[in-house]
Design brief:
By secondary structure, this protein is α/β, with parallel strands linked by helices. The structure holds zinc ion.
Length: 316
Amino acid sequence: MNSKSTNEGGIEGIYAGREKRETEPKIVLAFDVGATNIRASVVQVGKEGADILSREQAQTPIGDASKLLALLVQMSSKLKLAAQKNGLTPVAVGVAFAGHFSVIEPGYLTFAGNMGLHQVNLQDPLEQELRVPTHFINDVSAAAYAEAHDRKIESLATIFVGTGIGLGFIKDGQIVENTGDDSALTVVRGHNIFKSGGAPCPLGCDGCFQSYLGGKALGLRAQAAGVASDADGLLKAWRAGDQQARIIIEEAFDAMRALVKRIEVEFKPEKIAIGGTVIKNFPELMVVASEVATVSESKVGDDAPLIGAALIGAGL
Ligand SMILES: [Zn+2]
């Protein structure tokens, strides 16, 4: 638009105004609820992207849904107040949550192992308290959504290697929700079996991808082999040439190649984005992943679940 021009003012002014209304950014309260911390933000979202305006953080209460909901309400009030001071009114809430949700009943948590919660409706009570449309979504799905939105593509898979393995899938611009059980959709899961009867997994699916790749599992394997007490120690020992560490690391490489290959074959994403805390310290995992498919590093980074939750909350 040529703002200097005055003689075509009328019509251009109307169009400018209409355009502005259609793409008017929305103010959303976004949460990223993990097993350790809850991160919350006021986010301004529009077609072009998302801006985090303010942040709050608290420790996650474990094994108590009502305590958790009360804390979310409390954090919402603080954020709302901060937004209102700047003349902004949140119109929706998006919650990225480290758990799996029913595909039939929105916001019904089926399972969140690390938080000691299962079979509980979180969305309805929170929506009743906050009185704005509220959406709960699996955190890795939210992160995948943010990655796809940022890249302006409709088909994407994400692999987050942190304490465990998180996988998220976007198809035709929509989240392919993973309910966390085997009867679910035909997407690949971190607990799919890599080596039958292999390394132990706390969920009983011994030999799953997570038990060879997750940060916690790598630490436990290092302990069992007497190499180190955690994943960072394992990496240090491997870099120093330790033979036991090498065996564990090479199995992690094999698991990564197999996981990426399975995603490539079964889901055929346009892009595979890889991120997570373990990847930061262990970039060699990216290198082996790139041997079997076109992968790239997560672009949105640590805020991806928060941004994804905000976009979904805003209906974008
Ligand atoms: Zn498992």
